[in-house]
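Exam prep: given the inputs below (a chain plus adenosine-5'-triphosphate), describe the expected output before reading on.
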Amino acid sequence: MTVRVLSHQEMNIDNEDDVVLVRRAVRTLAEARGFDSFAVSALTTAATELSRNVWVHARKGKAFIEEVTDGDRTGIQVEFVDQGPGIPDIEWSMAGGHSTAKSLGLGLSGSKRLVDAFHIESEPGKGTRVRITKWKRF
Ligand SMILES: Nc1ncnc2c1ncn2[C@@H]1O[C@H](COP(=O)(O)OP(=O)(O)OP(=O)(O)O)[C@@H](O)[C@H]1O
Ligand SMILES: [Mg+2]
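Solution:
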């Protein structure tokens, strides 16, 4: 499946307020593009958890918010990139209920369930990249 990017927005995450700004930008775009309210909430919640992860676990990174199409439908894709400590055991961190920050450990697993596509890659010492996609239902 070839995905074409229709619009692109880049945001820095380097303080706690940026988490709120990313949340707001994702919500605004999803609403403007006519996503239903369930999809808006799902995507906004996932984007909030993932930007919070950048802030909490890596202290700084970026969010790339894109409007995409695969030819048949349009969607919103958000990619979170940081050069933080990375995740040594992705399976463990994705399982749910596991946290290195004495938190609930539900951000990654919860986010995955809220979106249509979830891609994560991470290398200890190098950083983490998470990409989520939500397609618009007709
Ligand atoms: N961007 C990141 N950089 C480094 N480690 C990360 C990153 N995102 C997640 N992790 C690791 O994966 C674990 C699970 O993440 P998850 O978001 O599910 O839980 P959490 O952030 O610990 O708690 P919460 O439920 O509050 O989100 C984290 O505890 C952390 O060890
Ligand atoms: Mg988290």
